[in-house]
């Protein structure tokens, strides 16, 4: 007599979707400085990136930058009774934008992350939480790696949680 929803996701379905998005090129995004929140600790300008690469700021003083984020490999997803686990294999390529709109490659980071999503049902609402288990940067750029981890924890995970579960569970 009560309405019911049965939702089943298998690893095959999740990995097929990941394969489809990866193959279609949908797991790519370009980010410019005007897309970042004002409170983001690092702006996409050569002046800010000079903390990590002083030569970049010296060669291109106060130029805007862009980031190209993309998946290097298909994400791997696994379903467990308590959560959906994912391994993400991505790269972040930075470019300096010159006054004539030419993009000059600045650096490339390969970043791998393990993410866990847990479903939550509250008062007939389906939501969830997302947590970041680990981030590994293939290049040894420690300061930038730490900043990326901080940014993911500060902005990425809360954004994902607000999208999945806009009304947090008390």
Distance between the termini: 29 Å
Level of helix content? 25-40%
CATH architecture: Super Roll
Would you count the extended β strands for me?
A: 6
What is the C-alpha radius of gyration, as a whole number of Å?
19 Å
| Quaternary form | single chain
Overall SS class: alpha+beta
Mean pLDDT: 78
Beta-strand percentage? 35-45%
* CATH topology value: Bactericidal permeability-increasing protein, domain 2
Our count of helices gives 4
Element-level helix/strand string: HEHHEEEEEH
Shape: elongated
**Domains, number:** 1
Low-confidence spans: none
Broad CATH class? Alpha Beta
| CATH homology superfamily | Bactericidal permeability-increasing protein, domain 2
Subcellular location: Secreted
InterPro entries: Bactericidal_perm-incr_a/b_dom, BPI/LBP/Plunc, Lipid-bd_serum_glycop_C
Subunit structure: Monomer. Homodimer; disulfide-linked.
Pfam families: LBP_BPI_CETP_C
Task: Describe the protein.
By secondary structure, the protein is α+β, with helices and mostly antiparallel strands. It has helices at about 10-25, 45-50, 55-60, 140-165, and strands spanning about 30, 65-70, 75-80, 85-95, 105-120, 125-135. It is elongated. Strands 1, 2, 3, 4, 5 and 6 form a six-stranded antiparallel sheet that branches. The protein has one domain (about 10-165): Super Roll (Bactericidal permeability-increasing protein, domain 2). The chain has four helices and six strands, in the order αβααβββββα. The two termini are about 30 Å apart. About 25% of the residues lie in helices and about 35% in strands.
